[in-house]
Amino acid sequence: MRHTGLRVVAATVLAATLAACGGASPGDSTDENGGDSSGAGGGGEASAWILTGGGWPVTAASFERWNESNSDQRITVEEYENDAYKEKIRTSVGSGEAPTLIMSWTGGTLADYVANEQVVDITADTQELVDRVMPSVAQNGAIDGTTYAVPMNDVQPVVLYYNEDLFDQVGIEVPTTWAETLDAVEAFDEAGIIPFSLAGQSVWPELMWIQYLTDRIGGPEVFQAVLDGQPDAWSDPAVLEALTRIQELVDAGAFGDAFASVAADQSADAALVHTGRAAMLLQGSWVYATFHTDAPEFASSALGFTTFPEIEGGAGDPGNIVGNPANFWSISAAASEAERQTALDYVNEYVYDDEQLAAMLDAGSLPPVEGLDDQIAQSDDAEYLAFAYGLVQDAPHFQLSWDQALPADQAQELLTNLSQIFLGEITPQQFVDAMNATL
Amino acid sequence: MTLSIRSGAVSRRAARPRTGPPFWLAAPALAIFALFALLPLGGVVVLSFTEWDGLGTPSWAGTDVWFDTVSDPATRQAMWLTLVFVVLSYLFQAPVALLLGVFMAGRQRYRAVWSVLYFLPLLFSSAAIGITFRSLLDPNFGLSRALDSTAFRTNWLGDPDLALYVVVFVVGWCFVPFHALLYQAGVRQIPATLYEAAVLDGAGRVKQFRYVTLPQLRYTIVTSSTLMLVGSLTYFDLVFILTGGGPGDATRILPLHMYLTGFRGYEMGPASVIAVILVGVGLALSLALSRLSGAGRMQSQQAGL
Amino acid sequence: MAAPGVIRERPNVIGALGGLLWLLVTIVPVYYLVLTSLRRQQAYYAENPLLPPAAPTLGAYRLVLENDFLRYLTNSVIVTVVAVALVLATSLMASYYLVRSGSRLSRGVLSVVLLGLAIPVQATIVPVYYLIVRLGLYDSLFALILPAVAFAIPISVLIIVNFVRDIPAELFESMHADGAGHWRILHSLVLPLSRPALVTVGVYEALQVWNGFLFPLILTQSSSVRVLPLSLWTYQGQFAVNVPAVLAAVTLSALPVLAAYIVGRRQIVSGLTAGFGK
């Protein structure tokens, strides 16, 4: 099943890892008893938690492959729903109950794990893998030059999906600038079609709007100032303008009047588009797979995709994208040495191996790996994947979702205040004041 | 639940037991209760004076945590919402449950059949009810498409001015049957002779309800009210699944505020402060209710011991 | 209004109308639930949600059953049965002690336990979590049973004490005079005479434990110990857009309680009213 080339690579990495473990690696903690509680028996058995939905079945399948050929190094896998995972993983890590492989979106969470020495340094052990990954993605797993996490699934840029039939029906073009966007909103609204589907109940899809707008208007430096904790960083005029434009959109009926009841976890936002009730949807790349599963006919005939519109006079590069670079694996410092070894072996041998890459492309998800153009051109979803691949490769800046980038308490404040902006309950200035208070 | 009317007399006689049962009979209950309820309660009080992100070790922060949390506008808002939620829930559930219970106690056959149907919500867990109502109230794919009227296209759970009322209704839908069952059982305890006497006195249906049913049900009312009030004060599951506190902070009642602060924002200190506040208010409420209501009853209990 | 027994008056029109209204309010969501669970996934977006599906299917149910539903059901049954048995046993013993022991200690114990009525479960969840981890019970069914029992004890004791107190003191004294020990008194006197209270407590706590969401959410993580309410939550993530499948899982989760109700309804009702003969 595995290719000889990869096997050689794996063996080399394995040898390197063994050497590293023999010595004292920096993140090494002498915890033997943490291992028994994480679900693994003895020996080299490890554990991992993954999510459900989207492209996750591919990851689950890769663990199955691993377990079939490594019965002495089995990895037990638990699947969680997105929100449930975020809540559980933190308490598990905090109490030394974490699985061997800890999945994160990097950002503030990973920084917390590192600060509390709960994940280990894997710079040397994963160099080979990291070198194959797009730098804009891989860099998220490093803190101060040390790798603590490596990407493990698809790159997830946020793109603008649309229903071609509805554009034909109303007789307008897909907007590429902000002015065209406002015109499109008006045209669809008059035709009784929701211009943009938005899963406001889940709140996090609203982040995509403020992120793109802020980036287009003020560039990535604006949010970087927030991340750096500069006083009053939220007061940047770009943030205020982004918020104002959001409220203008809401007032113009761009999201319909029921967006706050639409939930993303049931893909109701995508359903609005493929059932012809809404024209466009700003969502992560994983929704492409959702369209194909839920409405295959629509997906092959009328699903269009493009980039977020330009904003005239904005300081940000229109090539910038936002989204999740990927999900990342870290290795728990509470795991025993044998467990860690198993986890590392899995990561080095099975993450982005040829079979995994093929399975991902089949599922319409995009591996953040360099040099895939040929394989993408041959895949069933060549058009979409090539679009997204180009988008990611050409992007001068790839902004990690703000709620993942920020520390958890600030992220919560952000989500609450942002949902109130969309509901028109607070003004942009009130938002800025509330967010500045968290810095 | 079902209460005897002659307890006062009985308990006086019970006042002088010569060989009471040994303490160890109560030990298992006490041990489990102390270990898994009292001890964690103490733990949460201690945590409320610390700062802890759930990952490292808690660090002592003294009364600052309390000051910051209580002065936080989000906490104030959550307190206010909780008050509104508790009052509205009670005003909705108590009359409906009482009337329904009395109605169900009737002997007509159709009522027996209806009673079985009234029982339906009790079959479902809060998770089940939350998921069902979210789907049902979806303005795009739910009821709105069944009845082609704009009234049902309302954005039930997505409108910040409406969501709290909808949550009150769904929570009521969930709990009314249980309380109705309590009242039904209570009504069936009332001696028929009382009603016969009332009829002889020329009392109509309303007067019978006012002068026989209500007074006879007073202990059931106390029990049911306590459960309702303390229950809605600390109610979490259904609100969590229905709205998660949203839209905005429109349904972010205290228990949810505590959970989101603790398990989404990872600020265990402030979350513990909110927890302690909840416990405090809950205790005060229970005590006040038992004082207020069953003064006579409670005293006879005390005498009995 | 609705006097039981002998009194027959003109039919209660307002009562019946009100009753009918609430009946509708109760039934519509359940009707919608069952109906939707019988739809095909595509039809969910197309058909009128209150009309019967054009092509009903049990496919959603099959999908749910194929996804470990029975394991979650078994877990829920085990947790509920064990927890209720423990609650009943410990609360009954404690109530006997609390009522019949005249000591000052018992009075203190009762007030402490009754204060427990107001302890909200969520408020203590963080310390409970650490306690469970320390005791090595994390991610086991015991992690769900023990805290559930602890939080059930106050209300159970309150209810049972009210019953045991109403047992005439002479009965205790005469049994004692006959040389009966505490176990025998408990078994032959307290148990039978407080049966209605035990039924009430049993039904109430069974529903509480069965429906519990927060403890399973925090105190377990593996699918091997997942209970039904939590499984509904995870099914929602797993089936995502397949709303009929999610609602089929919801429907299935209600069937065991329905079965229990059908079998035990008579007993529950008579249990509530028994023991008041004289």
TrEMBL record, chain A:
- Residue segments, region Disordered: 23-46
Q: Which residues form the signal peptide?
A: 1-26
Q: What are the entry keywords? A: Signal
Q: Which InterPro entries match?
A: Bact_solute-bd_prot1 (IPR050490), SBP (IPR006059)
The residue ranges flagged as biased composition, category Gly residues, are: 36-45
Which PANTHER family does the record cross-reference, listed alphabetically?
ARABINOSE-BINDING PROTEIN-RELATED (PTHR43649), BLR3389 PROTEIN (PTHR43649:SF14)
According to UniProt, the name of this protein is: Extracellular solute-binding protein
Q: Which organism is it from?
A: Jiangella asiatica
UniProtKB/TrEMBL annotation, chain B:
Provide a GO CC annotation, any one: plasma membrane
Give the transmembrane region(s). 21-49, 78-104, 116-137, 162-183, 217-236, 268-289
Which residues belong to any copy of the ABC transmembrane type-1 domain? 79-289
Q: Which domain of life is it from?
A: Bacteria
Which Pfam families is this protein grouped with?
BPD_transp_1
Entry keyword Transmembrane helix: yes
Q: How does it sit in the membrane?
A: Multi-pass membrane protein
Which PROSITE patterns does the record match to this protein?
A: ABC_TM1
- Which locations, inside or outside the cell, does it occupy? Cell membrane
List GO BP terms, alphabetically. Answer: transmembrane transport
Would the keyword Transferase be found if you checked this record's keyword annotation? no
What keywords appear on the UniProt entry? Cell membrane, Membrane, Transmembrane, Transmembrane helix, Transport
Q: Which family does it belong to?
A: Belongs to the binding-protein-dependent transport system permease family.
Name of the featured protein: Sugar ABC transporter permease
Taxonomy, top ranks, is: Bacteria, Bacillati, Actinomycetota, Actinomycetes, Jiangellales
From TrEMBL, chain C:
Listed under GO cellular component are:
plasma membrane
Kindly indicate whether the keyword Phosphoprotein belongs to this entry: no
Q: Which residues form a coiled coil?
A: none
Q: Where do transmembrane segments lie in this chain?
A: 12-34, 77-99, 111-132, 144-164, 239-263
What are the ABC transmembrane type-1 domain coordinates in residue numbering?
Answer: 73-264
Which keywords label this protein?
Cell membrane, Membrane, Transmembrane, Transmembrane helix, Transport
* Membrane-topology descriptor: Multi-pass membrane protein
Q: Tell me where in or outside the cell this protein is found.
A: Cell membrane
A GO BP entry is:
transmembrane transport
Annotated Pfam families? BPD_transp_1
Main location (coarse class): membrane
Quote the PROSITE patterns the UniProt record gives: ABC_TM1
Q: Which family does it belong to?
A: Belongs to the binding-protein-dependent transport system permease family.
The entry's protein name is Carbohydrate ABC transporter permease
In the record, what lineage is assigned to the organism producing the protein? Bacteria, Bacillati, Actinomycetota, Actinomycetes, Jiangellales
